[in-house]
Amino acid sequence: MRIEAILIDFGGTLDSDGLEWYETFYRICRDQGMLINRDEFEHLGRLAGTRISRHDDVRELNLDAHVHRLMNELREVMDNEILMDPVKTSEAFLTRAKSWLTRHLPIVELLAANFRLGCLSNNWGNAQGWCEQFGFFEHMEVAVDSTLVGISKPDPRIFEIGLRRLNLPAEKVAYVGDRYETDMEGAKGAGMTTVWIRHPHYENDVKEGVADYAIRSFSEILEVVEDWK
Question: What is the pLDDT of residue 78?
Answer without folding.
Answer: 86
